[in-house]
Amino acid sequence: MTETELNTTNKLFAEKGLNVPICNGYGQNEMAGAVALNTIQHNKNGSAGFPTYGTDIRIVDRNTLKDVPFNTSGLILEKSDSRFLYYMNMPEKTKRSTIILSDGSEWYDSTDIGYMDEDGFLFITGRTTRVIIKIDHKVSLDVIETKIKMAEPVQDAAAVSCALDDKVVVFLKLK
Fold first, then answer.
1. Does pTM surpass 0.90?
2. Domain definitions of the chain by residue range
3. What is the pLDDT of residues 114-169, one digit of tens each?
4. Phi/psi class of residue 71: alpha, beta or left (left: φ > 0; alpha: ψ in -120 to 50)?
5. Which of 2.30.42.10, 2.30.38.10, 2.60.120.10, 2.30.110.10 would CATH assign to domain 3-127?
6. E-strand stretches of the chain
7. Of 60, 142, 155, 165, which has the fewest CB atoms closer than 10 Å, so is most exposed?
């Protein structure tokens, strides 16, 4: 949820007498649940949370796999003892989900893009798998949405790929 969506939801709940704040979290089935979580006592609005106990998160440059500075978007890598061992009967998918860094450490490739701020909170900004390929060039649906949202009359945008004719359809919500 974005910060705006979170604030709106909390406000609607409060109007209905439900005074329990909603907190964002982040994780994958392959990591056996949450890898980052906002709690009532330790949270930052708009973030996916702080890494959970026993989970390491690294943000690396997608091309070099080198760590990026705080507040710089990169590929989100995760490591935990609760990580799955393999995809059943899919050894190639298992291999693609694992990244071994130059120091020999093994990480799960979340295929998500994000950044970590100086306080250690994780922010999700996109996905590497939300791409289409046009004439041997990868085009990110997240980038398309972001660029369209910059137009004055656009409040929100959602881009989807049509499998039938390889076209992109964008749904707009105007101001």
1. no
2. 3-127, 131-174
3. 999 999 999 998 888 877 777 666 778 888 888 899 999 999 999 888 766 678 88
4. left
5. 2.30.38.10
6. 25-28, 33-37, 50-51, 55-60, 74-80, 98-100, 106-116, 122-127, 131-134, 137-140, 154-162, 167-174
7. 165
